[in-house]
C-alpha cells in the first residue's frame, strides 16, 4: 500500500477500528483478556494485517 495512504489512515502506526459491542451479530463474545470476538474484530484484523502489515487498535463502544 502507498506510504502516503498508510500515513493518512494510520498516523500513529495503528489502524483504529471502532467495534460496537451492542450489535450481537457483529460481536458475539469476549475473550478472557476482554478482546471482542466476532465478525467485526476479525475483519478489522484482516484489513490491518493484509493492507497495513500491522495489528489494529480496537476502539470499543456500546451503543444501545
Strand order of the largest sheet: 1-4
User: What gross morphology would you assign?
Assistant: elongated
> Assembly state here?
single chain
Structural class: alpha+beta
What is the end-to-end distance? 36 Å
Mind explaining what this structure looks like?
This protein is of the alpha+beta class and 64 residues long. The protein has one domain. It contains 2 helices and 4 strands. The longest helix has 14 residues. The mean pLDDT is 92.
In brief:
The chain is α+β, with helices and mostly antiparallel strands.
Topology:
Elements lengths: L2 H7 L5 E6 L8 E2 L5 E2 L1 H14 L3 E6 L3
Parallel strand pairs: 1-4
Antiparallel strand pairs: 2-3
Name the features.
64 residues; alpha+beta; two-stranded parallel ribbon; 2 helices
Amino acid at each position: 500500500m502507498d506510504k502516503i495512504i498508510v500515513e493518512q489512515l494510520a498516523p500513529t502506526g495503528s489502524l483504529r477500528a471502532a467495534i460496537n459491542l451492542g450489535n450481537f451479530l457483529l460481536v458475539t463474545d469476549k475473550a478472557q483478556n476482554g478482546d471482542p470476538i466476532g465478525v467485526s474484530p476479525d475483519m478489522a484484523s484482516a484489513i490491518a494485517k493484509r493492507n497495513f502489515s500491522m495489528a489494529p487498535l480496537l476502539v470499543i463502544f456500546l451503543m444501545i
